[in-house]
Amino acid sequence: DHRDLHLSLRRQRQMCIRDSHSFAFKGYLECNWLQAVEVGIDPAHASFLHRYLKNYEPEYGLQFGGKSGDSEIAMTTVLRDYSCPEINVEETEFGMRLVTARALNTENMHVRVTNLVFPNLIIIPMTNDMCISQWHVPIDDGHSWWYAMFTAFDKEVDKSAMRDQRLELYTLPDYKPRANSSNNYGYDPEQQRTETYTGMGLDINVHDQWAVESPGRIYDRTKEHLGTTDKGIITFRKLLIKAIKGIATGKVAPFTLKDNEAGDFRGPMAIDTTVPLGNWQEEWKINDKKRRDHSEWAKGVGI
């Protein structure tokens, strides 16, 4: 009927706008896929691995450039000066959500929301406007691909510029990183002294690549000592072990959407924002809804 036609046209329009607001790329990693997933569900690591010794303007690759959402404080400052966050892990219909909170003062809370869509997709905020959905897919036990989709709520994506910036770090057609173990990931001791914690450039992809590849292609987890900030990784491993045991006995994989449920799936939310301290657990959800309502393509598709 007329209503169904209108709904169909609306969905087609949203898909068209979504293409104008997105960009996709991939990259090669010399490590097991699980190592790559786990760096994305460790919210505390950004305060160290991605620590910038001074503030920068936002640009692609520099995930923590610019201002923290809804405030005048730079994201680099938040992560550098507030390195002991409160991390809350929530199980969801798709896997789990990590809500990381940093009290900036007696009035404001910085909130960063990231997600794991079980078992291999992480969704994280990159800037105030853009989020990344990144799948980690095994090639074999010791190598993997990451497939990233960058999605902007408000501004159209300059696909040409983003591609050019990516090609500064990756070769084609193999999508292998130019910075790698053969050249020490571009490490520069002077830069480490004056600009970044790692001394490996400003692009966080290089930092993460070094972090997941340097322990070896298959990390020996019997040698690790997990801490309180590793609660996301701990939760994920428990879910993964439970899923493996269940599938081995004939059970359906967890978090599997049925055909009649897939069209109703909403979320997950990923946002970096600063909200009033007193009611921060609800305020960040309000800010996410405002962002979606302001977006042409995301209206009506939030959770």
Secondary-structure element string: HEHHEEEEEEHHHHHEH
Structural class: alpha+beta
Tell me how many strands there are: 8
Q: What is the 3D form? A: globular
Low-confidence stretches: none
Largest sheet: 8 strands, antiparallel
Q: For the terminal residues, how far apart are their CA atoms? A: 27 Å
Helix content: 25-40%
Overall mean pLDDT stands at 87
Number of helices: 9
Strand content: 15-25%
Oligomeric state of shown chains? single chain
Radius of gyration: 20 Å
Q: Any key phrases for this structure?
A:
alpha+beta; 9 helices
Task: Describe the protein's architecture and organization.
The protein has helices spanning about 1-20, 35-40, 75-80, 160-165, 190-195, 205-215, 230-250, 260, 280-295; strands at about 20-30, 85-90, 95-105, 110-115, 120-125, 130-140, 145-150, 270-275. It is an alpha+beta fold. Strand 3 (about 95-105) and strand 4 (about 110-115) form a beta hairpin. The chain is globular, with a radius of gyration of 20 Å.
